[in-house]
Write a structure and sequence with these properties.
This protein is an alpha+beta fold and 161 residues long. It has a single domain (12-150), classed as HIT-like (HIT family, subunit A, 2-Layer Sandwich), CATH 3.30.428.10. The protein is built from 6 helices and 5 strands. It has helices at residues 2-5, 13-19, 22-28, 67-88, 125-130, 139-150; strands spanning 30-33, 37-41, 51-55, 92-97, 113-118. It has a 5-stranded antiparallel β-sheet. β1 (30-33) and β2 (37-41) form a beta hairpin.
Length: 161
């Protein structure tokens, strides 16, 4: 909600990430980028190690993605889910795409897939009573932890953080 209600910079943040060079990957929390998609840590995560898989092509609808972009989005989603399972040993994963603001998309104009690791008992009273989420690790530490697992995915990577 913090992101949804906050003022936005001009342009699409996902398109800016897609154009980033490897020198900016660590600061932007980009784990791997291919020609048509990339994996980045969610800056406003629902759980620790919440990832976004984003096509480089700026589209709001799956129908409008090129076949190559759609294929790469789902190949990279599968590879990222596999890496995440090895890296954090979750009890399960939520994987989904929210198409449109009414469906919960915070950035509706550029579709993206969420991969959220889940553990038994990972929801507690804090979000229900206090509207607060507790994250056990800062994003930079999560990035450093995940980084070596994602080097096995072919694509562009940051220099070691």
């Amino acid at each position: 909600m913090e992101y949804i209600l906050s003022p936005k910079a001009a342009g699409c943040v996902f398109c800016a990430y897609a154009k980033a060079d490897e020198a900016a990957f660590s600061e932007s929390h980009i784990l791997v980028a291919t020609e048509h998609a990339y994996v980045v840590l969610n800056r406003y995560p629902f759980a620790a190690a919440h990832l976004l898989v984003v096509p480089a092509q700026h589209e709001a609808s799956l129908d409008d993605l090129s076949g190559v972009a759609a294929d790469e989005l789902f190949r990279l989603t599968r590879a990222a889910a596999s890496c995440l399972k090895k890296a954090v040993s979750p009890g399960g994963l939520n994987i989904g795409i929210n198409l449109g603001r009414a469906a919960g998309a915070g950035i509706a104009e550029h579709l993206h897939a969420h991969i959220v690791p889940r553990w038994d008992g990972d929801t507690n009273f804090m979000p229900v009573i206090a509207d607060v989420r507790v994250m056990p690790q800062y994003l930079a530490a999560t990035y450093r932890h995940l980084y070596p697992f994602f080097n096995a995915i072919p694509g562009r990577h940051a220099k070691a953080p």
